[in-house]
Amino acid sequence: MSEQFQAPTVSANLASAVLPAFFDLPPALTRRLKDCKTLPSMPGAVLEVLKVARDPDASLSDYTHAIERDPALTVRFLSLANSALYRGSKKKVTICQDAVIRLGTDATIAAVLSFSLLGGKQSTTTYTYIWQRAVIATLSIQCLSEHFLCQSQARQLFTAALLQDIGVMALHEIAPPYAEILEIYLRDHEALCAQEKSLFGCDHAAIGAWLLKSMGIPENLAILVAQSHGSNEAIQTSLLCLQLSGSIADAWLSPTPQKCFRELVTHHPALKPKLLANLLDHLQKQLPPIAQLFNFVMPPMLNSEVLLAEAKQLLHERNQQLQLLLKREQEKSIALQEQNTLLDHQSRTDLLTGIANRAYLEKKLALFFEQASTGQDTLSVIFIDLDHFKQLNDNFGHQVGDDVLRQFAKLLSGLAVEKKHSAGKLQDIMVGRYGGEEFLVLLSQQPPVQAEHLANQLNHALLTTTMLEISGQPLKISASIGIASMSDAIFQTPIELIEAADRSMYLAKRSGRGRTILFDGNR
Question: What band does 395 get if pLDDT is binned at 50, 70 and 90?
Fold first, then answer.
């Protein structure tokens, strides 16, 4: 830490860099980063690699020559290329250029930077945790990228995971009070980021991205670092892998890993037992050699069988909860359907008699009328008015009148049902109460003679049917009936058809009641 962050080379580039809005930081923070003289120093070979990275025409050979300037860096770089992080090829590389080819330019830049940014602080608790977290996340990326089918971006994700927390190192140097925050929140990245945003106006992921971009790291990698500390709800699968890998590392390094993994599985259904088992087994096998490669303290090894057993148990519990929730939702849905059915029935039904009400009669009549007007069907309307009903109410009271209306509706409905079955068309006759003691019967797709036949049946039934017994005496009623059919005249609207049947009904009343009159357009 005695050397500076390679002033003036990097500082000059920091000052002159034209960065996109994505990398904008609060101005005061930017000035402190530019002026900081205690950021980790980098050897000349690393600075040379960064210089090559800024050249758009740089070749792989240029990267190779820059790395080979430092023999120790070259050895570690070859070890990385042959490690589990880049296990795609079984062939062991022995020369630096083959290693650069295997890793690619993005990973090469990140690797040489990773080996250098620790400076002399490998033994500090903060820096040890940062590298433990970064490497566990990087190893997790391998399983996650295979599971979520984004292997094509895996190497870039490895690199972003490895560099995701360098902003913590930067804040540690430019803001000494930050050390106290780290002591409290280092193992809770969500809370740590919230504290950083409150104090500095941005979190360490944004600062790390700014720092990487200023060093000449490719912008796409810097952007991934800026987005690495999201909420694990990213729409883009590759970004979800990166964010989820950090959460897995946090759970592994937590003082209570079992609890953290339970919470992680609870909130992320994609972490199924098979995926989690593969991931935990992979970490157990690869952490020791990678810790040796990066020269940091080995993270604690966990009992993956216990973690997996708990995860499976939690998954079972969650499935039971989901099934219970689904059952409740189904019950709510059934209850809602029943309620809607009841409301629909009530909206169509006359409350007193239980048959169709006027609104529903008019709705169905409009439909039948349209069908008949196009020549597809026939249509007849029977208009019924109970005779002397006002006198009945006056003599016996409205309760008796209501009982008579109910009995009459029952009789009329029974006759209509018989007619439906005999006609073989169950949906072509509708009975309803039009208002007061008035009733309508709609007959669609049946010849007008069927309407007259039904009316005659009704009149005959009324002659022999007792509606009620009052003081032991039978109470019978009669009805005046008018019938109008679409074939009787040219009707422009359904109302005209009802009015024609209504006029015929009044003619029946004037003719002595208890009879049926057919509409005659010539009258």
Answer: very high
